């Protein structure tokens, strides 16, 4: 006969192992649900984004307690919608290449839709404007950002990631429709993205190599910026798509990919990655995205050193909850995740104690 105390110890150990496995392996799903929950508590909207009838995404932020249209997500949704365009209207392989990393962004319920794709492309055309001497898709809201000069970006600011990725949406719209307005804005954004940030563009130097900066506040454009890994990789892909589509004699993409390869050690912390080069650890989503993007860059470069980093990061991808808790900065998201883990453990232990102590199963 096993004593009640031993039964309790066995069951609690099993419960601890089960909860730990669930929070480790399911860390991404739990963290995304928590994001939606925090948004609901702070803004009343359950979900980090809603979509208008025209297909334009509206973001809801627990960080800013506001709702807004983020130009990047208009681009992102536009790319998702564009997959409804018939193959007969697609004439360039690179510009229509489906990005395998998008599946890690956990954007559910966005079905391909040619009309909504066109709406997003038109939104980009209508909202591209001259700012500090170059064409940008300006962000008209402030955005807190720890470690960034001044601790935040102040409106209006722009993003090399957004401006570059918008080129792909616009080139797809031009490829499918032939309307020159899309190509015109894509041309303007290409020039903007590759113009130095201190002259109103998004190009900076990172350890002597070219880097497209994701977050550019013109008020601090002469200071070192964030050097965001995923933003640079997506921008490099967009530049490659533009150069392949247009056949321009300017070939910047190769240098951008080489820069990522050379600078990749700056984003490595063993089995986890940094979001940027100013000390921000990646959250679970961005670590998974970083790993997939760096693997793609490694394949383009044929760089073994890059693949070694990817192999180490894959350990974190397979155990996201554990390594995020180990490496993350203290944030509301991390605190909520840890508190939920502890709460589930404690509630389970209490239930097990009750079962062992007071029911026939404890005999």
Overall radius of gyration: 23 Å
CATH topology of the largest domain: Glycosyltransferase
The CATH architecture name of the largest domain reads Alpha/alpha barrel
Strand content: 5-15%
User: How many domains?
Assistant: 2
Q: State the strand order across the main sheet.
A: 1-2-3
The geometry reads as globular
What structural category characterises the helix and strand content?
A: mainly alpha
Task: Give the helix tally.
Answer: 12
How many distinct beta strands?
A: 11
Give the biggest sheet.
Answer: 3 strands, antiparallel
Task: State the order of secondary-structure elements, H for helix, E for strand.
Answer: HHEEEHHEEEEHHEEHHEEHHHH
Name of the CATH class of the largest domain: Mainly Alpha
Percent of residues in helices comes to 40-55%
Average per-residue pLDDT, rounded, comes to 93
Could you please describe the fold and organization of this structure?
It contains 12 helices and 11 strands. The strands form 5 sheets. It has a 3-stranded antiparallel β-sheet, with helices on both faces. A two-stranded antiparallel sheet has the order 4-5. The mean pLDDT is 93. The protein has helices at residues 4-25, 27-43, 71-81, 114-127, 160-177, 180-193, 229-246, 253-263, 284-301, 304-318, 320-327, 332-358; strands at 49-51, 57-61, 66-68, 128-131, 134-137, 143-144, 152-153, 203-206, 209-212, 268-269, 272-273. 53% of the residues lie in helices and 10% in strands. The protein has 2 domains: 1-47 and 330-363, no CATH class; 48-323, Glycosyltransferase, CATH 1.50.10. The protein is mainly alpha-helical and 363 residues long. The longest helix has 27 residues, at 332-358.
């Amino acid at each position: 006969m096993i004593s009640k105390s031993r039964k309790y110890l066995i069951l609690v150990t099993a419960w601890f192992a089960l909860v730990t496995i669930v929070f480790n392996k399911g860390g991404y799903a739990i963290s995304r649900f928590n994001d939606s929950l925090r948004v609901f508590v702070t803004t009343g909207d359950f979900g980090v984004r809603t979509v208008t009838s025209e297909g334009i995404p509206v973001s809801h932020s627990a960080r800013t307690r506001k709702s807004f249209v983020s130009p990047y997500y208009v681009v992102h949704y536009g790319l998702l919608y564009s997959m409804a365009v018939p193959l007969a209207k697609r004439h360039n392989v690179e510009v229509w290449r489906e990005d395998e990393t998008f599946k890690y962004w956990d954007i559910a319920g966005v079905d391909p839709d040619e009309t909504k794709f066109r709406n997003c492309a038109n939104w980009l055309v209508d909202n591209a404007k001259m700012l500090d001497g170059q064409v940008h898709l300006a962000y008209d809201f402030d955005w807190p950002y720890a470690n960034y000069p001044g601790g935040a970006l102040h409106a209006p600011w722009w993003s090399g990631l957004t401006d570059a990725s918008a080129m792909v949406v616009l080139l797809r719209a031009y490829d499918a429709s032939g309307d020159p307005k899309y190509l015109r804005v894509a041309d303007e954004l290409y020039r903007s993205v590759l113009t130095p940030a201190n002259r109103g563009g998004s190009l900076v130097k990172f350890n002597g190599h070219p880097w497209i900066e994701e977050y550019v506040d013109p008020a601090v454009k002469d200071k070192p910026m964030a050097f965001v890994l995923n933003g640079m990789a997506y921008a490099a892909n967009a530049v490659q798509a533009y150069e392949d589509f247009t056949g321009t004699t300017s070939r910047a993409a190769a240098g951008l990919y080489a820069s990522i390869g050379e600078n990749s050690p700056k984003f490595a912390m063993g089995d986890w990655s940094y979001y940027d080069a100013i000390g921000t650890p990646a959250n679970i989503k961005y670590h998974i995205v970083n790993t997939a993007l760096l693997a793609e860059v490694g394949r383009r470069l044929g760089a073994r050193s890059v693949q070694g980093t990817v192999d180490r990061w894959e350990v974190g991808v397979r155990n996201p909850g554990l390594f995020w808790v180990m490496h993350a900065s203290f944030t509301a998201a991390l605190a909520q995740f840890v508190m939920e883990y502890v709460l589930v453990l404690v509630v389970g232990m209490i239930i097990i104690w009750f079962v062992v102590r007071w029911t026939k199963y404890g005999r």
